[in-house]
Amino acid sequence: MSEFQLHPQLAADTLPVASLPLCDVLLMNDAHYPWLILVPRVADASELLDLNEGDRTRLWREIDIASRALREQFVPDKLNIAALGNMVNQLHVHVVARFKGDAAWPKPVWGAQPARPYPAEDSVERLSRLRDVLERLVNEG
Description:
The protein is built from three helices and five strands. 35% of the residues lie in helices and 21% in strands. Helix 2 (53-74) crosses helix 3.
């Protein structure tokens, strides 16, 4: 078994937010949508079933934390949660805050339009806010 490394495509498309007990939390660098990606730090995992039972339970807890953080910070109309892996086979879970007026609504965000990277000042503020709320939610248990 190899050592865990973040897939290069995920590293290129995201900004690091936080490390939870199981997952690295990343912000998709696309200002069209508040979009977190959780990547379990488990080498060679490509499917949920590649995680042991304890890690699967932990992953769902961390998805819950990420979902609550997005809902609290952005008050979306809907949260989309998906683990596709068709393009990047490393196990990762998308948690996307969706709004009835967003550019892709009601369709999926993938391929709807080219990503619009965050301006530097916006990304610093968004990352700070997300780190604060994630830390608080983790500490609340």
